[in-house]
Amino acid sequence: MASGSKEERMLLPLRVGEYCHDWKKSQDICLSLIDDDEEAVRANAALGLAYVARTKGRLEKHQVKPALLMLLKTSQEYRWRIIDAIEDINMFLDWKIGQKAVERFKNESDQ
């Protein structure tokens, strides 16, 4: 996934999350982009996973949860987008991942 411009890599997870009919392929593309060098691409990969949760109603928790929690800890500029993605995934899939961490980061940003 390293090929393509930053803009192309930023759009890819959003497009597959929204339009690709294969939830597993969409998830795998988003997960591969979570390791991108650009924080904006990584944040959009998390958002792409939220799109998959919304449009396909399915993700593999054992793969998605650790990736999102890692992003939540390591992201700075786009942490808000990671939080939004986690909250959306929790809502659409009835999961409860990262709730304490999300609340902690929200409280830190309010101070």
Automatic annotation (TrEMBL):
<protein>
    <recommendedName>
        <fullName>HEAT repeat domain-containing protein</fullName>
    </recommendedName>
</protein>
<dbReference type="InterPro" id="IPR049796">
    <property type="entry name" value="CdiI_Ct-like"/>
</dbReference>
